[in-house]
Amino acid sequence: MTQTKAYAAQTAGAELAPFQFQRREPRPDDVAIEIDYCGVCHSDIHTVDNDWGRTVYPLVPGHEIVGRVTAVGSDVTRFRVGDVVGVGCMVDSCRACSACEAGLEQYCSEGMTGTYNGKDRYDGSITLGGYSERILVSERFVVSIPDRLDPATAAPILCAGITTYSPLRHFGVKAGDKVGVLGMGGLGHMGVKFAKALGAEVTLFTRSEAKVAEARKQGADHVVISTDREQMKAVRERFDFLLDTIPVAHDLNPYLATLKVDGTHILVGLLEPIEPAVHAGQLVAKRRVIAGSLIGGMPETQEVLDFCAEHGISCDIEMLDIRNINQAYERMKRGDVKYRFVIDMATLE
Fold it and tell me: How far apart are CA 257 and CA 338, in angstroms?
């Protein structure tokens, strides 16, 4: 057992504060990682506040982790001490179901084990995440950070990056396709970058005129103000794909009307009921599809990191002193970050 410093929430809605706990003993397939950087995800806030009703306290959030290997178990073959590695949203799965065998561990039939607030499959303990000094993770759920990536900006790729890359790849976005990206936050700005790198013509949908110049800076070819009826009318039946990163309930119907025949509207940000109801005629009349996608499996998580290194893609970040984490949460709730906070874990000292 190793004494570990961290920041944790003790109750629902409580501020994060310094906390110490014992990391478990290493297992033969474990990689021991000293954490250098950890991204801050909206899911962290939802879990701290128990918005989904499943939080176990004390809670140490953090699932966008980059650090250096300090030790490896006897069964580990892919990593050595000193390697720069990453850990994303999950640290285990059943490893035996059809999804796991296909490298889609996020869809494990028994449910994946989250990097934090998950239940360890061996000892039943609750997993504690990356707002901490160190972590132990099975080799299967560790990825290599390519040398060409800056470790700090690579951290959010392990959630925001894979969440937007995976559906674009799965649904076959290719050069010449017309892709609309809904929302311009941590997920949306990565979606724009990936769609452009895949050769698509990219349009950002936003409610804010203030984001037009920023969207073009990120690589969007066009920007549509979604509250402007004339602009929405002008793009009817234009798109092959919509990547919807909006994290709150919103009306899908105006967006569905912008899809071509056989167009696909992909939800990656919404984890609650769709309101208002979708008009089925929007789907039936044009054979449109509403789909969803959850992060990505381990092979694809390594793939997105390699893709980012090859194409010079990184997440736009603001470095954060962990002592300011509660202020950062408040700023995130206001949408006041471009586009991801990343904690410099050296500030934990």
Answer: 30
Task: For residues 177 and 270, state if they share a domain.
Answer: yes
Q: Where are the alpha helices (DSSP H) in the chain?
A: 42-48, 98-101, 151-154, 160-170, 186-197, 212-218, 229-234, 253-256, 280-284, 298-311, 325-333
* Domain, as residue range, for 6: 2-159+296-348
- The per-residue pLDDT for range 99-117, each reduced to its tens digit, is 999 999 999 999 999 999 9
- Same domain for 301 and 272: no
**191 within 8 A of 172, measured Cβ to Cβ:** no
Q: Is 268 found in the same domain as 207? A: yes
Structure tokens at 202: 């990219």
Confidence of residue 226 (pLDDT cuts 50, 70, 90): very high
pLDDT of 123-151, one tens digit each? 999 999 999 999 999 999 999 999 999 99
pLDDT value of position 349: 82
Task: Tell me how far apart the alpha carbons of residues 39 and 26 are, in angstroms, rounded to a whole number.
Answer: 24
Boundary (domain end) residue, out of 248, 273, 292: 292
Where residue 107 sits, what CATH number does that domain have?
3.90.180.10
Q: How many structural domains is the chain composed of? A: 2
Between CA 63 and CA 65 the distance in angstroms is 6
